[in-house]
Design brief:
With 811 residues, the protein is of the alpha+beta class. Helix content is 50%, strand content 17%. About 1% of the residues have low confidence.
Length: 811
């Protein structure tokens, strides 16, 4: 049997070598389907299937706090409090243990070359136990070292390789972090990346005693490992009850809201909304694979139909039906090999282009590639697609009737309904992909047209993280920021410069309850930002009324604030808010009031797609409560500097380091680039779905062309007779094109129903366009119609030129 299969495969090679048009069409179908599906599987494998590289990842969860008042302000969850962590560990029965990491930690590495900003994590001693990870070299810190804030550090593998050349001798040596000496005690293995790929080292997390008794200071991220058999829902119920008991010990105001807890799998936390993007891409590539199968099936049926007399003769001289089926399948295996190899090459090229578009915080980016499981997937898909497609002509062969076939000319063999059905299926699925791509494209266009409320063009951004050992007081910090702004404003070509603790569209959120004097029942939740004067003009945020902050607003003067126009209208209507007062954050009788000295334009702070909250601002130079200081030691520099702001980066960094040679500057990019980064996932999704739609349109075109061409060939005798009886060539051409249009009409009716369901499934990803958008539907239908007509033009022109004498004589 093996010898027979090999012989059939060799025969298949020879047949495909002679039929170049058929072979190229089949290989192209396989290449597109296998290449795109392999690329998406590689993303899925690295980002989702291997996103959590720790043992028993299904038992790892993230714990968040919730609050009904915060949820009403579009903050469904937030970081936890040290007191919650202590209670959860002491009272919970669902967890083996729970660890904490500090939400925002930056280190300035100096003393060994140019200053460098290092993203680090302050973690409790049990983090590595919870994740079940041991160091590659050395050890991790202990509970005792946590309790005394020991100056020890555990390095990440990538940072160890990049900065110290992978030298194991670094263990026991000291490095300078934030102007303080830390002993390197360990190096983590390469796969250890927590809480994200950005973290380069970990140090002990010392929690001040007063924080364990505070209602606020939501500065920590909690990760826990469930006990065997415990479920996420059980942990959710248990931690919610514990959290509510914790909240009862604190006085609550009228807008305090009810606290709770949210427990979610670490995979959901890590992958986030990108999982939806992956699932949409998987559905799209499944549609493309279906189209490829159908296209190949149609091609194989055409080829099998042309060989019916051959199969009949083979059957007549003793070939069994099983032998004929095996021969047909073996003959197409060379196509599987050719398409598989070409598909792998296409997948490799796609991954090279796609990876730079992916959000950098996604896990597994470094491991995306054609690994053994990915290559196995490509091989399996290439074989499966060819075998599934090859089953269609096999079923046709199994219905051979020797007498009937021998009496028929091969051109008159039945199978037209099957071929037409396959083309209709192709066109219907293609319509769905074109519609989905159109919806996502229109959504992206609508997003790009959204006014963010500021002017990003001509603006350069960069980030600084200062060292408290050098600037221990808030007044010293504010004075340092003012000096830097003054230096940068003096650079020729710089139009304006300012600072803000968090840029718009940052991943972090700082949302505060806001209370207005004399209006206790008209409170609000707002995004809060501390700024250095000139931030508004540098960002292009308009000043509606009042004044900007100035250098006269210091810690010794009365406290002032600025609100945006949305909040001003909501609270004061058409009256001026200037001179009124508000307070925010941890609102108690001791919370200071801020006088409203200005109203600025409202901006989109989270992303271009949502606009959940108004904004408040206060000067960096004036003190705030501890709950509002989490981002005080890290700021974003905003510089307006003409049409090409990136060209000013070197001179700006030079001025910053002239003030402080040990000050690292990081994440330098234009504001336009900052906006583009927030759209990375949507850009990727839109581009890939459009790519799938265009690929499916090409496959559908090839399939339709093949069916119409073969159908016209079978009707040559009919066309010859019609021409002999006086039919004009135009009439013949309309008949061929009409066949294609009829297939398009049937496919459109079927495809519209599926497209409607697909549009509803995409609703969470749409912006500014409905899930059944008429314009998108019309465009998809017209594009498919144009492709259908174009596919029929070649066969129609050939049929219109038929010579009745030659055609009838050949019959």
């Amino acid at each position: 049997m093996i010898a027979e299969i090999w012989q059939d495969m060799r025969y298949g090679f020879r047949v495909f070598a002679r039929n170049k048009g058929f072979t190229l069409t089949a290989v192209l179908s396989l290449t597109l389907g296998i290449g795109l599906s392999t690329a998406i599987f590689s993303l899925t494998y690295s980002i989702i299937l291997r996103a959590i590289p720790f043992p028993e990842p299904d038992r790892l969860v993230t714990l968040w706090l919730t609050n009904s008042a915060a949820a009403a302000a579009n903050v469904p969850r937030f970081n936890t409090n040290a007191g919650n962590w202590i209670d959860w560990r002491a009272q919970s029965e669902s967890f083996e243990d729970i660890a904490l990491t500090k939400a925002v930690t930056n280190f300035n590495l100096t003393g060994n070359g140019s200053p460098q900003r290092v993203q680090g994590g302050r973690a409790t001693w049990n983090l590595f136990e919870v994740l079940h990870v041991s160091p590659l070299h050395g050890r991790v810190f202990t509970e005792e070292e946590d309790g005394r804030a020991a100056r020890v550090a555990v390095l990440g593998f990538g940072f160890w390789q990049k900065k110290f050349g992978g030298d194991a001798g670094i263990i026991g040596q000291n490095i300078l972090l934030n102007d303080e000496s830390y002993e390197v005690i360990g190096v983590m293995p390469q796969y250890f990346q927590y809480p994200s790929t950005d973290f380069d080292l970990w140090t002990p997390l010392f929690i001040p005693p007063d924080e364990t008794r505070s209602q606020y200071s939501f500065n920590y991220r909690a990760v826990g490992r469930l006990k065997p058999g415990a479920t996420v829902q059980q942990a959710q119920t248990e931690t919610t009850a514990i959290t509510r008991r914790w909240a009862q010990q604190f006085p609550s105001g009228p807008n305090a809201g009810q606290y709770g807890a949210l427990v979610e799998s670490l995979l959901d936390t890590t992958v986030g909304s990108f999982r939806t993007v992956i699932y949409v891409l998987i559905c799209a590539v499944a549609c493309l694979l279906l189209i490829g199968c159908v296209n190949l099936g149609g091609l194989f049926i055409v080829r099998a139909s042309a060989r019916m007399r051959e199969f009949a003769i083979r059957a007549a001289i003793g070939a069994s039906p099983m032998r004929l089926r095996r021969q047909t399948l073996a003959e197409v295996l060379p196509l599987s090999a050719a398409g598989g190899v070409a598909g792998v090459v296409l997948a490799w090229l796609l991954l090279k282009m796609l990876v730079p578009w992916l959000p950098p915080q996604l896990p597994g980016l470094d491991s995306i590639g054609l690994h053994a499981p990915v290559l196995s997937f490509a091989i399996a898909v290439s074989i499966a697609v060819v075998l599934v497609a090859g089953m269609l002509p096999v079923r046709l062969i199994s219905r051979i009737e020797l007498t009937g076939i021998m009496q028929q000319n091969s051109r008159s063999v039945a199978g037209g309904i099957t071929r037409d059905s396959l083309v209709i299926a192709q066109l219907a699925v293609t319509l769905v992909l074109l519609f989905a791509g159109g919806l996502l494209t229109r959504s992206l266009v609508a997003i790009l047209r959204t006014n963010p409320g500021f002017s990003p063009s001509g603006v350069l951004t960069m980030h600084l993280a200062l060292t408290r050992a050098r600037y221990p007081t808030d007044s010293q910090v504010a004075d340092y920021y003012r000096r830097l702004v003054t230096r940068v404003k003096g650079i020729p070509g710089v139009k304006d410069a300012g600072m803000v603790n968090l840029l718009p569209f940052s991943e972090s959120r700082t949302v505060y309850p806001v209370e207005f004097e004399g209006r206790p029942d008209q409170g609000a939740a707002a995004d809060g930002r501390s700024i250095v004067p000139s931030y508004f003009s540098a960002m292009g945020i308009p000043l509606i009324s009042g004044r900007d902050f100035s250098e006269l607003d210091t810690e010794t003067t009365s406290r002032v604030g600025i609100i945006d126009e949305q909040l001003a209208v909501k609270i004061f209507g058409d009256k001026s808010p200037l001179g009124r007062r508000f307070r925010f954050g941890v609102i108690t009788s001791a919370t200071p009031w801020l006088e409203i000295v200005g109203v600025v334009g409202h901006i989109r702070n989270e992303n271009l797609e949502t606009d959940p909250r108004p904004q408040i601002y206060w000067p960096e130079s004036q003190p705030t409560s501890d709950a509002n200081r989490i981002y005080k030691d890290r700021v974003a520099f905003v510089i307006r500097a003409g049409d090409h702001p990136e060209s000013f980066a070197a001179s700006i960094v030079e001025q910053i380091q002239a003030e402080n040679p040990d000050q690292p500057v990081y994440d330098i990019r234009s504001m336009v680039g900052w906006l583009d980064r927030s759209l990375q996932s949507r850009n990727l999704l839109t581009i890939l779905v459009i790519l799938f739609g265009c690929s499916s349109l090409l496959l559908a075109f090839l399939g339709l062309y093949g069916v119409v061409s073969y159908g016209a060939l079978l009707r040559l005798r009919e066309f010859a007779i019609r021409t002999a009886l006086g039919a004009q060539p135009e009439r013949i051409r309309r008949m061929v094109v009409g066949h294609s249009i009829r297939l398009w009409i049937i496919a459109s009716i079927i495809g519209l129903g599926v497209a409607w369901a697909g549009g509803r499934a995409l609703r969470s990803l749409l912006y500014g366009v409905g899930s059944a958008d008429a314009l998108t539907v019309t465009a998809a239908l017209l594009l498919l119609l144009a492709s259908s007509v174009f596919a029929a033009l070649g066969p129609a022109m050939k049929a219109g030129r038929v010579d009745p004498a030659v055609a009838l004589r050949s019959e």
